[in-house]
Every structure is written in C-alpha cells, then in structure tokens.
Amino acid sequence: MTCYDRRDLGLLLLRLSTGGVLAAHGAQKLFGWFGGHGLEGTGQYMESIGFAPGKLSATASGLAEAGGGTLLALGLATPAAGAAAAGGMAGAAAVHMPHGFFAQEGGYEYAATLGLAAAGLAVAGPGRLSLDHALGHVFDRGWMVPAALGVTAAATALVVGARNRRVRQRAEGEQETLFEE
Fold first, then answer.
1. Angle between helices 54-74 and 6-31 (to 10 degrees)
2. CA 114, CA 48: separation in Å to the nearest integer?
3. 35-76 per-position pLDDT tens digit
4. How many CA atoms lie within 13 A of 70 on its CB side?
5. Cβ neighbours of residue 42 under 8 Å, at least 6 residues apart?
6. What is the per-residue pLDDT across 3-23, written as a single tens digit (0 to 9) for each?
7. Helical residues (DSSP H) of 2-143, grouped into ranges
8. Minimal CB count within 10 Å: which of 21, 26, 108, 152?
9. What is residue 152's predicted lDDT score, i.e. its pLDDT?
10. Of 34, 13, 7, whose CA–CA distance to 23 is shortest?
11. Sign of CA dihedral 113, 119, 124, 130
12. How would you label 27-51 residue by residue, b for 16+ Cβ within 10 Å and e otherwise?
C-alpha cells in the first residue's frame, strides 16, 4: 500500500478547491448554472467589455474555466488544464486591471489568485492522488508544462491585446463624439 505524504494531500486540496471554483465559474458562463447568465448573456457581456465576438469569447472562457477546472480537480492532463485556466484568468485580470488590485474595488486580485494557483499546479504537478498518477502520467509529461504554458501565454496575449485595442478605440471614438457635440 502506498503512503501518501503531506505534499500529495496539499496538492489534492489545492486542486479540488481551485478546480472546483473554476469549474463553477465556467458553468455559470456555459450553462447559466449557479446564478450565471449562460452563453447568451455572458456573450453580450463579453462583447460589451471588448471581447469579440462575444459568444465565441464566452464559450472559450467558459471552456477554459469549466474544462480546466474540472481537469485540475481530477488531476488529469494537469499541465494543459492549469495553463488553460491560467489563460482564462489572465483575460479576466485584464478586464479588472483598471480598478486596481483589491477585489472590493473591482480589481484583479481574485482572478490573479485563481490564475496563479492554476499555473502553479501546472508546474508542480497533481501529486499521487490524481488521475494523472493513476494513468502513469501519459498526459503529464515534463515537456508538456512549458509547451502548454507557452501556447496559452501566446494565445492569451493575442486575445487580450486585441481586446485592449478595441477598448482604446471605443474610448477614443467616445472622446471624439464628445468634442463634436
């Protein structure tokens, strides 16, 4: 019988809590569960904050959170799961960045914490109390960590960069309209 150590138990708790919260947030976006608005409402919101097209952005965000969170909780494909969730949270943090750090002011504290926890799990691995361990780490190889985080970082930079350009252009258009009136 295998004896699990504190590290395995700690990683299990971190995976379950981080993954569970992320999965619930994703379910709000995708299905409207837990008081969420589903794809239609979330898509409209995403469009209003500069992510276009809105429904596609809501789907991608919901899948990163629900899929990445579920996989993290299970400890399955941990590098890809953690990277996907971290990318989704980087997008959320970009939206909240103008409001500062603390969540009570609308800041990015919460999104950053979830994203960093997910990235940390991608790097640290799931521990022995995981499906990755039970399956012989076929979806959790060392080379997968930098690959997953690198691809996600590049995709996130493109998406957030495009969103930020749209937000700036919208603000400049509103400024021009004010001067014309």
1. 150
2. 23
3. 999 999 999 999 999 999 999 999 999 999 999 999 999 999
4. 8
5. 28, 29, 36, 54, 58, 61, 62
6. 779 999 999 999 999 999 999
7. 6-31, 38-48, 54-74, 78-96, 109-124, 131-134
8. 21
9. 97
10. 34
11. positive
12. bbbbeeeeebebbeebbebbbeebb
Looking at residue 17, its amino acid is S
Residue 174 is given by DSSP the state: H
Q: Scan for tokens 């590098």, then name that residue.
A: 79
Phi, psi (rounded to 5 degrees) for 174: -70, -35
Scan for tokens 């971190």, then name that residue. Answer: 14
The whole-angstrom separation of Cα 112 and Cα 135 is: 31
- Condensed to tens digits (0 to 9), the pLDDT of residues 101-153 reads 999 999 999 999 999 999 999 999 999 999 999 999 999 999 999 999 999 99
